[in-house]
Design brief:
Strand order of the largest sheet: 1-2
Number of domains: 1
Number of helices: 7
Order of helices and strands: HHEEHEEHHHH
Structural class: mainly alpha
Largest sheet: 2 strands, antiparallel
Distance between the termini: 72 Å
Number of strands: 4
Shape: globular
Strand content: 5-15%
Length: about 210
Amino acid sequence: MELCFRSLFNVVFLVIYVFESCKSITPEDEGVKYASKCEACKVLAIELESRLAETGKSNDVIELGYSIDDKNKKKTKYKKSELRLVESLEGVCDRILEYNIHKERSDSTRFAKGMSETFKTLHGLVDKGVKVDLGIPMDLWNKPSVEITQLKSQCESLLEDHDEDIEDWYFKRQGEVSLKQFLCSEKALRSDDQSCLNEELPPAKKKDEL
């Protein structure tokens, strides 16, 4: 009976130990570092301004409201319309799925489009016939990482929380101050760390430096 009790005690102790050990494992322990609020806001501002630059090329004039008499229909430039803002916001966070983690950088520029130097090297080795085993199929190498999918969710939350601020900037402050300054520095990050807003991508290396 005593032997059975000791065995049961050991099993319970082992289960508790494993459970507590698993609880202590953080995303950072697994090499995962999620975007900060500053990084998420910065990426959102970059992508939305980029999208607005695309839609702003149109010189169309649109009609607002309904009227039997065409002369009474209100007209406005598409560039200044609410329609342009709505169309620019649509799917803007989906653009983040085009980003990759560039782990050779430690600041906010680690979130950027294009293949990271690490994966460029790995693909180069594969092209040379070298067997590279990352523990995942090669066709998944370029799939969005957990950090990127989380960044997309952060973007969506920021849009939901600051839709009125974005609208205010679009109609009243656009052209006077950048969205990054207005939305991030003055609104979303007013009481938070803003250091990432000044971090820029390093200059591209020249061919003779490669």
